[in-house]
Amino acid sequence: MIKIPFLLLGLFCLFLSLLVAGGSAGALGIFEAEKGPGLGLAALCFFCVLPCYSYAILTCEVLQLGAVSGRLQTVVALVGSIVGLLFGLYFIVKAITLLSVMLALFLAVPFGTIAYMVIWGTFDTGTSRIVLSLFMTVQIIGAIFLVVAAPTIVKNGKLVALTAVTLAFAFILGLLHGLVPNPLVSIVDALAALVISIVATIWMLPLLIGGILSLVRVVRAVA
Questions:
Q1: How many angstroms separate the CA atoms of 196 and 165, rounded?
Q2: Average pLDDT over residues 174-181
Q3: Is the predicted pLDDT of residue 199 greater than 90, yes or no?
Q4: Please, is 170 exposed, middle or buried when counting C-beta atoms within 10 Å of its C-beta (0-12, 13-18, 19+)?
Q5: 72/5 Cα distance (integer angstroms)
Q6: Of 75, 177, 196, 204, which residue is least crowded by CB atoms under 10 Å?
Q7: For residue 154, what are the contacts with CB-CB under 8 A and spacing of at least 6?
Q8: Helix, coil or strand: residue 64
C-alpha cells in the first residue's frame, strides 16, 4: 500500500533540492558564468528537473486525479520538453563557448594565461562543496521517503536511473572540484556542465515524443 504522506514528503524534498541548486546558481551569478562556483551547478539544476517531473507525474497517478491529470500531463510534457530542449541547447552552447574561451586563454602563454588567471583562476570550491552536499543530502532524504512510500518504485528502471544519475552527477562534480588544482577547476566545471547538459537534452527527447503522441491521442478522442 502506498503511503501518501511519505510520497508527498519525498516529492517535496526533490523540489527542495531543485530550489537549492537553482537558487544558489541564481544568487551566486552562475548563469553569467563569470563568478560563483561555476556553470556545472546550473546544469545540475537543469537535469534535476527531470526526476522532479517524473515523480510529480507518479504522485498525480497515485492520487488518482483522473482525466484532468492525463490532459495536464500531456500539456506539461509537451511544453516542458520544448522549453527543456531550448534550455539544453542554451547550456550546451554556453558551456562550449565558455570552455573554448578558457582553453584558448589558458594555452596562450603568457598574456592569455594571465588573463585566464585573473578571470577564472580562483574557484570558490568551498561554496560549491556546501551547495552540492546540501543538494545530495536532500535528494537522498527524498529518495528514502519515496521508497518508504512506495517500495515498488525501485522496480521502475527509469525513475531509479534518473535518481541515480542525478546523484552521480552531483558527486562527480564535487569530486572534480576537490581533486583538480584550483586554477583549473573552472575548466573541468565547464566540461562537466557540457556533459550534464548533453545528457539532460537527450533525455528530454523521449519526453517530447511522448507529449506529441499523447496530444495526438487527446485530439483524436475529442474529435
A1: 10
A2: 90
A3: yes
A4: buried
A5: 23
A6: 75
A7: 147, 160
A8: coil
Contacts of residue 33, defined as CB under 8 A and 6 or more positions apart, other chains included, come to 39, 94, 98, 190
pLDDT digits (tens, 9 = 90+) for 80-133: 788 888 888 988 998 899 899 999 999 998 999 999 999 888 888 888 888 899
pLDDT score at 115: 92
Residue 206: pLDDT above 90?
A: no
**Gyration radius (Cα) of the chain, Å:** 19
Q: How far apart are CA 215 and CA 66, in angstroms?
A: 16
- Is 6 within 8 Å of 132 (Cβ atoms)? no
Encode 95-106: b = buried (16+ Cβ within 10 Å), e = exposed.
beebbebbeebb
C-alpha cell at 220: 483524436
- Grid cell of 208 as nine digits: 517530447
Distance separating alpha carbons of residues 179 and 106, to the nearest angstrom:
19
Q: Which of 73, 182, 84, 50 is nearest to 128 (CA)?
A: 182
Report which DSSP code applies to 21: H
20-52 in b/e form (b: 16+ CB < 10 A) is bbbebbeebebbebeebbbbbbbbbbbbbbbbb
